[in-house]
Amino acid sequence: MCDMATEALSGPLLKKKISKAKKAPLSFAFVPGKKPEDSILMLHKKKNPSLLGKEAKAEGDSPKFAFGTIKINGKVAELTCGRHFGQLAKQCKKFLRANKVQLNVIIFSEDGQEIESDVEDLPDDPEFDALAAEDEAEDDGQEPQQDSQEEEEEEQAQAVGPDAGQLAQRLKAVQPAIMAAPGEAGEKLKKVMGMAVQLIKAGDLVKADQTVTALEGAVAKLGNAPAAPPPEPAPAASNDNDGKPDTKALIARANALKQPIGAVQGAARDKLIAALTNAAQLIKSGDLAGADALLTKIEAAVAKTAGTASQETAARDALPPEAAKWFAAEGKLAPLVEKAMQEKKGDLDGINRAFNYARELAADGAYDRALAAAGKVAQLLKEAASATTSAAAQEAQDAIPDNVVPFVQSRLAWINTRKALHQQISGLKSAIDSTTSDVEGLEDIPSRSGKLFDYLNDIDTDLEDTLEKLVETPEGDARTALKEQARGIIATYQGVLDTPFFQAVDDNGFVATNIRGSALDSLSKVSAALAS
Question: Which DSSP string corresponds to 229-282?
Answer without folding.
Answer: PPPPPPPPPP-TBTTBPPHHHHHHHHHHHHHHHHHS-HHHHHHHHHHHHHHHHH
